[in-house]
Amino acid sequence: MDELLAETFDRIVNRGFDPRNSSFPDRVVVLVVSAQGIIDNGGFAYFHSLPFDPPADPEDFERVYTEIGADECATAFREALTRHRAQAADANYDDLDVVLNGASEEIYARLTGWILEHEAELR
């Protein structure tokens, strides 16, 4: 993660990020960084076992990945949510984990570009 992304994330969190009430631009930054870190460490099964507190809107993860142009990842989030709701603990996410695992560099680059385009909204 580059310096601009880390500083932006920290600034948003330090001013009191709330995953349901913060602005959409703030949610883009925090939810992408947080979700990507969780997925990288344990995949979608791990992601679904660690809810945000307060909880985030589950559909927001697809929205924020779509917003930064990571459409394949957004689709994986949509499918993971569908599986989670249908099967809960028995859901298998191996095929979806592959989409996001190892994609952090690309995701963070997309997010940094997005931050540069939306700087005024993130102040």
Task: Give a written overview of the molecule.
The protein is an all-alpha fold and 123 residues long. The protein has one domain (3-122). The protein contains six helices and no strands. The longest helix is centred in the first third of the chain and has 26 residues, at 24-49. It is globular, with a radius of gyration of 14 Å. The two termini are 20 Å apart. The model has no long low-confidence stretch (mean pLDDT 92).
Please identify the structural class as seen in this structure: mainly alpha
What would the principal axes of the Cα set say about the shape? globular
**Count of domain modules:** 1
Largest sheet: none
Helix fraction?
A: 55-70%
**Low-pLDDT segments:** none
Strand content: under 5%
Give the terminus-to-terminus CA distance: 20 Å
Number of strands: 0
Count of helices?
Answer: 6
Round the Cα radius of gyration to an integer and report it.
14 Å
**Overall average residue pLDDT:** 92
SSE string: HHHHHH
